[in-house]
Amino acid sequence: MVPIVEFDRVSKIFFKGNAQIHALQNVSLQVRPGELLAVVGPSGCGKSTLLNLTAGLMQPGTGEVRYDGNAVNTVNTQVAYVTQKDNLLPWRTVESNVGLPLEVGRYRDMSAAQKRERITRYITMVGLLGFENHFPAELSGGMRKRAQLARSLVYEPDTLLMDEPFGALDAQLKLTLQAELLKTWEGSGKTLIFVTHDITEAISLADRVIVMSSRPGTIRSIADIKLPRPRDVFHVRFSPEFGEYFETLWAALKEDMKNGTELH
Ligand SMILES: Nc1ncnc2c1ncn2[C@@H]1O[C@H](COP(=O)(O)OP(=O)(O)OP(=O)(O)O)[C@@H](O)[C@H]1O
Ligand SMILES: [Mg+2]
């Protein structure tokens, strides 16, 4: 099996004046095609850096990042990326922002009607029907996040990177979108790498959960989540197995609290 994403002894140091920030240290990781991998870890441990490297938005200091067996040397167009920071274009409406990925590359030849159908499908899925003609400034923070999610899903990428996509949402909406995400992902064969600070969310969604250590970020442990699929995010958290996974992951994360690092 060729891993869809592979980190081979990757380190990343950022330089700021004379200061160095050692973000990732010797990270090796293989992501299997079609798996849903969740990444948890303390704030500042390099989770977003991990996704930025996978998307080819930055290059490692040492080591190599590979996608489907090839080194990632430039922007990786095989992936769609829901970034932690909202990056909707302020001068475009929701509909036009969501449709942006269909204007380039492999979707250039798709008919206008097909594009419209697909855009509407994902706008509906994230609950933004009725807001198609609104501009980002006219939306709440959570709505902007949902528009960003629709924009990434509309691309129907082979691999989706999501950086705390539901972090700012209220509990009910978070559960609803988790359920929608699983419905879309399960059986799709697509790979999903999902960064979250919420252990319950990580276990509910993932095939494997990676726990990262505080900076410099390393992989502290990896847990296989063997809960059956399709999963019901509303009820899965009440099973005894779920409680055991929670204990294990919490114990791994707590190590960093002892070091005085803020949990995020
Ligand atoms: N482009 C950059 N330039 C300089 N330093 C950076 C850059 N990106 C990240 N860093 C630094 O690298 C470290 C890891 O950052 P990163 O954003 O990957 O953390 P994170 O795990 O995503 O944190 P959070 O949970 O708070 O989002 C931090 O100390 C951050 O300040
Ligand atoms: Mg981050």
In brief:
This protein has 264 residues and is of the alpha/beta class. The chain has helices at residues 47-54, 94-98, 112-125, 141-154, 171-185, 199-205, 240-258; strands at residues 5-16, 19-31, 36-40, 62-67, 70-71, 79-82, 159-163, 191-195, 208-212, 219-224.
Q: What are the salient characteristics of this protein?
A:
binds adenosine-5'-triphosphate, six-stranded mixed β-sheet, 31% helix, binds magnesium ion, alpha/beta, 10 strands, Rossmann fold, 264 residues, globular
Task: Please describe what this structure looks like.
This protein has 264 residues and is of the alpha/beta class. The chain folds into two domains: 1-78 and 159-166 and 173-264, Rossmann fold, CATH 3.40.50.300; 85-157, no CATH class. It has seven helices and ten strands. The chain has helices at 47-54, 94-98, 112-125, 141-154, 171-185, 199-205, 240-258; strands at 5-16, 19-31, 36-40, 62-67, 70-71, 79-82, 159-163, 191-195, 208-212, 219-224. The strands form two sheets. A six-stranded mixed sheet has the order 6-7-8-3-9-10, sandwiched between helices. A four-stranded antiparallel sheet has the order 2-1-4-5. Helix 3 crosses helix 4 (141-154) and helix 6 crosses helix 7. The longest helix has 19 residues, at 240-258. The radius of gyration is 18 Å and the shape is globular. It starts with a strand and ends in a 6-residue tail after the last helix. The mean pLDDT is 93. Bound molecules: adenosine-5'-triphosphate and magnesium ion (MG). Magnesium ion binds at residues 47-48, 84, 163.
